[in-house]
Amino acid sequence: MRDPDADADAGSCMCKYVKHLRICYVCQNESTVLISERLCPPAKRSGVFGSCDDGIASGRNRTQYQCWQCKDNVMRISQAARELTRA
Ligand SMILES: [Zn+2]
Ligand SMILES: [Zn+2]
């Protein structure tokens, strides 16, 4: 299985906590989806996160989306518009 984020931290040899965030492009509301552990090659060999001597870094992985509140607003607006044209 190919890691979709593999390119983002190519060249990094530290263990990494990666915080996956979603940011609404309408209201900029941020929410954490999950935090994943990225093991560096030495740590991978022992199978324990942070077991190398390189320390632990942290990174962020942002994706843009539309939160349910904004989706709800859009739906309500388009429904109101539909009702207006009908009337
Ligand atoms: Zn490491
Ligand atoms: Zn939003």
TrEMBL record:
Q: What is this protein called?
A: Uncharacterized protein
The species this protein was found in: Cephalotrichum gorgonifer
Phylogenetic lineage: Eukaryota, Fungi, Dikarya, Ascomycota, Pezizomycotina
